[in-house]
Please model this.
Amino acid sequence: MLSVQPLNHALNSTLVLPGSKSITNRALILAALAQGKTQLQGALFSRDTRIMLAALDALGFQTAVDEAAATITVNGLGGSIPAEAATIHVGNAGTAARFLTAFLALKVGGIFELDGDAAMRERPMSGLTDALSALGAAEFNFHGQPGHFPFSIKSHGFKGGKTTVDARASSQILSALLLAAPALSPCSSSTGRDVQIICPDVRPQYVAITLKMREAFGAPPAAVEATSTYSLAPVAYTPPNSGTYAIEPDISAASYFLALTLIHGGTLRFPNLNAEPLQGDARFVDVLAHHGLQVDAGRDAWVATCDPSNNPQRGHREIDFSAISDTFLTYAALAPLLGESVRITGIGHTRHQETDRIAGMATELSKLGQLVKEEADALTIQPKPNELRARALKARNAGELLSVDTYEDHRFAMSFAVLASFDLLGDGQPWLTIKDPGCCAKTFPGFFKALDQLRL
Model:
């Protein structure tokens, strides 16, 4: 458990964000698919990206890592996978789980064993495994619940074709196919065959990242029809012309510090972000702008500012977070400070992520005295700031602090750490503890260190 020291002054600092996990893991797959060396600059080193790196190493790829310089160099093999067999454990890394499953289907005659931790075994994979089976690219033998980890995969390679994909559970299912299915390999026909993927009802934000990154590695633009059909020509991926690919800083990680700037005031600069980022979570800025935060997005940095005298409290709101669902926890955790009730919608799919995020957030806010209504796809929060103070004071008088569980989910730890940074009792002393703060290692190992540096 970690008690969080409140901040007692307005911000005036620069924060270098880690690279995006989603972009780093996509870039690792694309670099492995390309023919030749690619250096990834600004790469994230976290639990999820280390899982992907370990998998590539187990499959026989040559990688070189320089954590101090935040670079990873991958020697891509043009669609070839050296290992004919391997056992891979994906932990609870959704990107690694989905991207690697489709990637492994490239290996004609490959036999691979895949498993994850207990939480990953609950996360859906059937949309992807069904599509790979329908394309004739792989056969699966499930060792537990069908459509879930653990399973064995016997891979046959992609030979083109058409299939309908259910990616409602996770857009990563579609992204995995967009990356691997059209890739030419040494066993592919020189002419190859187009792949058509029909995928309605998918959240488009991360799919857009995948499509843009494919083009950075030499793929032609995918033809996307109104019928939600993605037509993919065979592609021999190549490293970017410079031999390097710059990983964009993690805007989901920025959300916590944007929220921090809102409630404390001052100025916080985020270098290496530009005015047109790949990540859809940039729209979280609009959510906080309603409460008084201003963000100047320049060519090489974002600068967030808020008047320390600003009152962030506003009237009732209903916000659709379907396009920026990774940030809904940031906003929900701050709800006790933001005025009247808020209804957060479009988040049903988050019940199947690292944990059931809707249920978890409802539980933790209720423990803090907030009134919460949980729905299948939404969460309504009625802030009760006086009740929060009363419970914090009661705990303090008993020689204790309030605490929140994190469910092995990094976003719970970071979101509630922002709330805990608020000087709720006006004495500058901790009032809230975070259980299992180490879960931040999934995407932002240095989160609490970064938070501490802003206190200086």
Remarks:
- The chain has a mean pLDDT of 95.
- The longest helix spans residues 251-264.
- The first strand starts at residue 2 and ends at 3.
